[in-house]
Specification:
- The protein is mainly α and about 375 residues long.
- The chain has 2 domains: about 15-165 and about 270-335, Methane Monooxygenase Hydroxylase, Chain G, domain 1, CATH 1.20.58.480; about 180-250 and about 335-365, no CATH class.
- About 60% of the residues lie in helices and about 0% in strands.
- The protein has helices spanning about 10-15, 15-20, 25-30, 40-65, 75-100, 105-110, 125-135, 155-165, 170-180, 190-210, 215-235, 240-245, 255-265, 275-305, 315-325, 330-335, 335-340, 350-355; strands at about 185, 190.
- A two-stranded antiparallel ribbon has the order 1-2.
- Helix 4 runs antiparallel to helix 5.
- The termini are far apart.
- The structure holds protoporphyrin IX containing FE.
- Protoporphyrin IX containing FE binds near residues 44 and 323.
- Protoporphyrin IX containing FE binds next to helix 4, helix 14 and helix 15.
């Protein structure tokens, strides 16, 4: 402990560089084998783990804000800023793979065999990150029917279990969305009004196709596609059908939360909804960046080891590519775009609701 608040502190001591810079010990060096690139391999992974630590730190603070029954509106701006910070880190994590790719597959083979069975499967912080966001055991693709917690010590497994049993960022955001007011305001029922607007939009599109000067077979094809789209949209407004998709694991957000996310997206220009909209946008971007990392990592693996199996025992590339396709976390928020209609078609809000969503004040009163 420092003697006083203002006691001088040395750069190296403050950053504990003795520990950090003494933590790179290439196995090839210990074995007396020449493998120049192992240092880069170690430092790259360490840099990732440090950034994972920072992401988890930011994420925990955001979770804390949303755990409260009433989320203080002022904290939403802070959450937006912290999610934005996480996203900037994720961009660095994606870009950082290029540095590792300066190592050629042959250079990697110089030391790869000394790493067994070390693998990204044993990155506790990465698994913690996934579980905190909402990817636990359920909904995860596995390799060789193994539990993803298997590579960890008892204490770490318990920690992951506790995270899975608690509320994830996804479930907290769902609860927050479900509490969104204004979906039902006096006579205004957002879901009903929106459903009607969707119907109107399809009716005018249908009319445009019917009036178009195109061959009959093209017309019929377009009409069939329009019908399919309309049926999908109609089903979204049906809570029972939505529940069925939830039960099948095809959706994550409840019907109420989805309607709220739709409302925020549609009326994002109303002043009160701007910050919630930016928050939802931050989650969509986070999902996209994590998926980009998964694809880039898989792509790098293909280039580095081809279709060889991984040191952790998975099939390697095919497994990783599948995680990129299936381990989306905020897919329901991204999928809101499927439900959007042009601004010109959106239902008009009642005047008193508009006032509530704005920043009204009277000068001189
Ligand atoms: C030459 C570089 C790399 C190779 C060849 C490689 C290879 C692999 C392979 C084959 C897997 C599948 C598991 C297995 O069977 O071992 C894997 C998983 C993983 N790797 Fe890498 N990796 C490399 C670099 C990195 C880096 C720099 C990180 C950053 C932390 C990383 C993090 C992970 C994570 C977190 C997983 C688990 C992914 C999941 O299960 O969704 N890897 N890696």
């Amino acid at each position: 402990m420092p003697d006083s608040k203002y006691a001088s502190v040395h750069y190296s001591k403050y950053l504990e560089l003795d520990k950090i810079l003494d933590a790179q010990h290439p196995r090839s060096e210990a074995l007396g084998v020449e493998a120049h690139d192992e240092m880069l391999f170690i430092i790259t992974h360490q840099a990732y783990e440090l950034w994972f630590k920072q992401i988890l730190y930011e994420l925990d603070s955001v979770l804390e804000m949303f755990r409260r029954d009433v989320v203080d509106e002022r904290s939403i701006g802070t959450a937006v800023a912290r999610i934005g910070r996480i996203n900037e880190i994720l961009k660095v994590l994606v870009a950082q793979l290029r540095i590792l790719e300066t190592m050629s597959p042959l250079d990697f083979l110089d030391f790869r065999n000394y790493l067994l069975p070390a693998s990204g499967f044993q990155s506790f912080q990465f698994r913690k990150l996934e579980a905190t966001l909402g990817l636990g055991t359920k909904g995860r693709i596995t390799y060789g029917q193994k539990d993803y917690k298997e590579p960890f010590a008892e204490r770490q497994r318990k920690e992951l279990e506790a995270i899975e049993e608690g509320e994830s960022l996804c479930s907290l955001i769902e609860r927050w969305l479900e509490r969104t007011p204004f979906l039902q305001f006096g006579d205004f029922d957002f879901a009903q009004a929106y459903r009607q607007a969707v119907k109107n939009m399809y009716e005018s599109e249908r009319q445009a196709v019917l009036d178009a000067d195109i061959p009959e077979e093209h017309k019929q094809l377009r009409l069939r596609m329009l019908q399919a789209n309309q049926e999908y949209l109609e089903s979204v407004f049906d809570p029972a059908f939505h529940q069925k998709l939830l039960d099948e694991g095809k959706l994550k957000l409840s019907h109420k939360a989805t309607m709220a996310a739709l409302f925020i997206n549609i009326y994002r220009d109303e002043p009160i909804l701007q910050t919630p909209y930016r928050l939802l946008l931050g989650f969509v971007e986070m999902d996209e960046l994590l998926t980009t990392w998964r694809y880039r990592h898989a792509q790098m693996i293909l280039r580095m080891i081809g279709k060889k199996m991984g040191t952790g025992g998975s099939v390697g590339y095919d497994y990783l590519k599948e995680t990129a396709d299936k381990h989306h976390l905020f897919f329901d928020l991204t999928n809101i775009s499927t439900l959007l209609i042009p601004r010109s078609e959106k239902p008009e809000l009642p005047e008193d609701l508009k006032r509530k969503l704005g920043f009204y004040f009277s000068v001189g009163k």
